[in-house]
Specification:
mainly alpha; 11 helices; elongated
Amino acid sequence: MKTKKYNDSMTMAKRCLLLSKRNPDTLLTSIILPAILMLLFVSLFGNLIHIGNTSYVNYIVPGVLLQCIAQASATTGIMVNVDVTNGIIHRFSTLPIKNSALLNGHVLASIVRNVITSIVILLAAALVGFRPLAGILDWCIIFLLLVGIITALSWFSVVVGIISKTPEGTGGASALLVILPYLSSGFVPAESLPRILQIFAKYQPMTPMIDSMRNMLLGEPLNMTHLTLALTWCVVLTLIFYLMSLVLFKKRLQK
């Protein structure tokens, strides 16, 4: 049974990737726009903002990564919403496949798209002076953390896609995630933010994620408290939004 569910999920993931390949908006959101944003941030603010002993491009790479992943994850919600609103989910429900396989497929495809997005951002950053000092173990942990972040944000977008009435509404609601990296230590030290935003930045999930990635990318001592908190956020958010999506999807199928 588990093998069949896995096969169904992989089939749906291939379907989502084929749809993405044929959609120019996905190419723009996942590849071109992240590279442009990376170049713009460094070009506009690189000489204006000074962060300790490191260059601004080295400082902002984790923030740009999460900001672009959040933006690209909105594509997942839109694709789910299209499936929900155009009636294709009812056709799939008549087939001998698990209903959850459709959602799993969207998330798996999102992971692939966002890993590509992350690679594009790192290459663009390298063009403007990004020089990471991470070792092999650091890169492995960074990859694990990125996959956890992508999975959590993708399941959030799935929930938004199920409950929204239109693709436009889905995109607008999912775009709220894009704001979070700005209200963290992603682009400036959290200590430089206004007092009320400092408090928000301290306790929101993206701050420990960004700080952990930055320490590893720059070869600095890893703060295990931040890393543990970041991974815990990924697991908890993934579990919450996964369970919510199953309940909401089942209700949507009954309409």
